[in-house]
Amino acid sequence: MLARRIQPLVEKACDMQEYEGSFMFDEYPDQLMIRRVSRSIYERLDKSAYQDDLMMQEVNGRNWLEDFVTVMLLNEMYSRRCRRRDRRCGGIY
Fold it and tell me: What is the pTM for the complete model shown?
C-alpha cells in the first residue's frame, strides 16, 4: 500500500529528470543528486500515517521511509536506463 502511494511521486520526479545529459543517464550517477531527488520525494509524502514508526526510527537513527523512497527511485531510474539503452541500440541487448 505504501509503495502505491510513493510510486507516482517517483515517476513524476524521474519524468522531470529524463532529458539528454541528465545525471540519471550518466555511467555513474551523482550520489548527491540522487539523495536530493529522494529527499524531495520524501518531503512531499504525508507522514502522519507513519508517525509512530517515524518516532521510533529517531531512536534507532535510520530513516526507513527515506531509504524506501531511495530504493524505489533507484529502481525506476534503472528501468528507464534499460529502456533507453534498448531504444538507442535497437533492442540488440
Answer: 0.78
